[in-house]
């Protein structure tokens, strides 16, 4: 970790407002006081064997009990060794034996206003038929399947069907470009892709199948494509390769036994950005992941049988995996899925969905909250939001003003807010209030969940004193931790386990206050968080330099009112190329083509050269200051050429 990375850790405002759990909420909560939380947490750490054993016995259905709880050959963990279970069975079949059989499992709303409800029996039938459809085109246990779909029930059905037959899924967010899809698919070497003709977003069609066609020119492993008809526009279907979902499913039986999987069999890969190189396929396995998702959903959202629960993420991200599909369904909860944009046809859409389905628990991202604040209180005020009893946020630090607005305007002052910190790699929530126990503080993720032992350390791995910023690490393995990076064990060791010996390195900075509350300070590596989406500055830089006119590029995040961070690019051009507004537009489009609209630069600045250290390293810290309009703090003595900085400040183009 360089000094420059250390410099990325800033201290947050002193925040002393505190909100104890409302009494009415507390009375019904599963954990009702801080004393109870502390006792349970301490036990879960001191005797983690008993804790995880009891949870796994209580919360999951097993085909065969495990023999060893944990084999920990750092950094490789195996949990519930020798056990067998099926994640889809746990999310679907087991509820059919109870009164939940006809309970709503998925309540779905499409962007154009269409809606569907699938009960657990409906879900079972559709998942079984689709599992058989996958088998009919030759998908077998262990084969990866790429899923690139809009937010429709069939996305959850596809995920669960893969889990049912033991084929690890790799869901790629529908907002990624064909290039990004090809990269991910080539890495996973999937032979089947599941998609739709399109999906709705802000009244327009996202041409998913066209993107797949383009992707497949670069991704030869795919032999079969299944296409769900959602938007109905003209698309091309290649005979022998492309199959309509409805045609393939029509002939299938609704009987498909769930494959008993080993605890450590891969459940899915999910690609995420790291600080260097190409996206990494984070590998999650069956038992540990499912236990983490099930347990955290139950306690952190204080789930009750009658709740209607809505997580507004996309299943293309880990939040959607754990808290739209696996966590809620495994608990037998009713999970809401919404297809489109939060502000379509107007800024009242979310509040309309809440009123329409009487949503009780809402889990969303700070960037969405900030966008709603901008559109004005008149939108939520038009709707009856009294069904809400609990609110959650995830994905980035929430600024105290946004927290207060969420609390007052959306929660009517009566709903606890759980600010949940976790990562694709952690599989499930790690640091969060328990809503019936923890007094919340705006902007603070508070305390670790059961069985989780975070620490804040310095560069040498020594715990820092209370109040000081440092690197957030995990001292103990936990069941839903990532097991590897797909096909790149070295990178797995290097990224997560070599910074602080024997401990998991999160890439985030944090500080702990006198109450033992954890304050997340943001990334300490070259990952930026744009609207809650994780992007590597290197990825955007590679996209820029792959354009013929670009010689060098440096990308940094700068603070942004709604997005949290916005992408700022500093670009030097090849000899003879001239900066122009047209070239800016072209470069911006080029980045979108390479990665997807989520990576669209906020700002591109042309410059003659980039500030570097004598050893040739780009000084990102300086660029971040320039991008944010700040005077540079700290050491600039190694800057190769002082005039570069002056030029950048002048906005020299
Ligand atoms: O920097 C942290 C930030 O999001 C990163 C993880 O991103 P991703 O793997 O895409 O997962 C996002 C959803 C789990 C973290 O390293 N982050 C996530 N939640 C919070 C957060 N930062 C502050 N507060 C949070 N509640």
UniProtKB/TrEMBL annotation:
Function summary: Catalyzes the conversion of acetate into acetyl-CoA (AcCoA), an essential intermediate at the junction of anabolic and catabolic pathways. AcsA undergoes a two-step reaction. In the first half reaction, AcsA combines acetate with ATP to form acetyl-adenylate (AcAMP) intermediate. In the second half reaction, it can then transfer the acetyl group from AcAMP to the sulfhydryl group of CoA, forming the product AcCoA.
Keyword ATP-binding: yes
Protein name: Acetyl-coenzyme A synthetase
GO molecular function, one term: metal ion binding
Binding locations of CoA: 201-204, 319, 343, 531
Annotated InterPro entries: Ac_CoA_lig, ACAS_N, AMP-bd_C, AMP-bd_C_sf, AMP-binding_CS, AMP-dep_synth/lig_dom, ANL_N_sf
PROSITE patterns in the cross-refs: AMP_BINDING
Domain of life from the UniProt record: Bacteria
Binding-site residues, ATP: 395-397, 419-424, 508, 523, 534
Residue ranges constituting the AMP-binding enzyme C-terminal domain according to the UniProt record: 539-617
Keyword field contains Protein biosynthesis: no
Similarity section: Belongs to the ATP-dependent AMP-binding enzyme family.
Cofactor(s) the record lists: Mg(2+)
Post-translational modification remark: Acetylated. Deacetylation by the SIR2-homolog deacetylase activates the enzyme.
EC number: 6.2.1.1
Region (Disordered): 1-24
N6-acetyllysine PTM sites in chain numbering: 617
Catalytic activity: acetate + ATP + CoA = acetyl-CoA + AMP + diphosphate
A biological process from GO: acetyl-CoA biosynthetic process from acetate
Main enzyme class: ligase
């Amino acid at each position: 970790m360089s000094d420059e990375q250390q410099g990325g850790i800033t201290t947050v405002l002193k925040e002393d407002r505190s909100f104890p759990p409302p009494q009415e909420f507390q009375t019904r909560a599963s954990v009702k006081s801080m004393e109870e939380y502390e006792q349970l947490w301490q036990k879960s750490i001191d005797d983690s064997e008993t804790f995880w054993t009891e949870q796994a016995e209580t919360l999951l259905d097993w085909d065969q009990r495990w023999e060893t709880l944990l084999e920990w050959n750092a950094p490789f963990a195996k949990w519930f060794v020798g056990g067998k279970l099926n994640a889809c069975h746990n999310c679907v079949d087991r509820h059919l034996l109870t009164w939940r059989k006809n309970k709503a499992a998925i309540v779905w709303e499409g962007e154009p206003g269409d809606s569907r409800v699938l009960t657990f029996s409906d879900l079972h039938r559709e998942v079984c038929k689709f599992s058989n459809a996958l088998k009919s085109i030759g998908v077998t246990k262990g084969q990866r399947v790429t899923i690139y779909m809009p937010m429709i029930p069939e996305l959850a059905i596809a995920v669960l069907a893969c889990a049912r037959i033991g084929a690890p899924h790799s869901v790629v967010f529908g907002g990624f470009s064909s290039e990004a899809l090809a990269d991910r698919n080539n890495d996973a070497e999937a032979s089947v892709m599941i998609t739709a003709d399109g999906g709705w977003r802000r009244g327009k069609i996202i041409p998913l199948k066209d993107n797949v066609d383009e992707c497949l020119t670069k991704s030869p492993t795919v032999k079969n494509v299944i296409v769900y008809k959602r938007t109905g526009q003209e698309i091309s279907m290649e005979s022998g390769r492309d199959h309509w979902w409805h045609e393939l499913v029509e002939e299938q039986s609704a009987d498909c036994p769930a494959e008993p999987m080993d605890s450590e069999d891969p459940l899915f890969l999910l690609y995420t950005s790291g600080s260097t190189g190409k996206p990494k396929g984070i590998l999650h396995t069956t038992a540990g992941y499912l236990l983490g998702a099930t347990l955290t959903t139950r306690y952190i959202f204080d789930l009750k049988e009658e709740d209607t629960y809505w997580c507004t993420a996309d299943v293309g991200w880990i939040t959607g995996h754990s808290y739209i599909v696996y966590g809620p369904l495994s608990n037998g909860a009713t999970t809401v899925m919404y297809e489109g944009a939060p502000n379509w046809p107007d800024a009242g859409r979310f509040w309309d969905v809440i009123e329409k389905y009487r949503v009780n628990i809402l889990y969303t991202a700070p960037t969405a909250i900030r966008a709603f604040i901008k559109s004005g209180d008149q939108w939520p005020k038009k709707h009856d939001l009294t069904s809400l009893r609990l609110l959650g946020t995830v994905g980035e630090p929430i600024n105290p003003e946004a927290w207060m607005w969420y609390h007052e305007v959306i929660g009517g002052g009566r709903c606890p807010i759980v600010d949940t910190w976790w990562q694709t790699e952690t599989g499930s929530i790690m640091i969060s209030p328990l809503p019936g126990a923890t007094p919340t503080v705006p902007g603070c993720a508070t305390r670790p969940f059961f069985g989780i032992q975070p620490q804040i350390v310095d560069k040498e791995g020594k715990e820092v004193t209370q109040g000081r910023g440092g690197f957030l690490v995990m001292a103990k393995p936990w069941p839903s931790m990532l097991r590897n990076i797909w096909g790149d064990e070295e990178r797995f060791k290097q990224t997560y386990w070599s910074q602080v010996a024997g401990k998991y390195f999160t890439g985030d900075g944090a500080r702990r206050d006198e109450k033992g509350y954890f304050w997340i300070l943001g990334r300490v590596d070259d990952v930026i968080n744009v609207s809650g989406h994780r992007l590597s500055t290197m990825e955007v830089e590679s996209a820029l330099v792959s354009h013929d006119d670009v010689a060098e590029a440096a990308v940094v995040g700068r603070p942004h009112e709604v997005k949290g961070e916005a992408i700022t690019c500093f670009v030097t051009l090849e000899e003879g190329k001239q900066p122009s507004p047209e070239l800016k537009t072209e470069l911006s489009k080029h980045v979108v083509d390479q990665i997807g609209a989520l990576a669209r630069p906020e700002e591109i600045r042309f410059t003659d050269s980039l500030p570097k250290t004598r050893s040739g390293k780009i000084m990102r810290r300086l660029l971040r200051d320039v991008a944010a309009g700040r005077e540079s703090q700290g050491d600039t003595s190694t800057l190769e050429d002082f005039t570069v900085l002056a030029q950048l400040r002048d906005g020299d183009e």
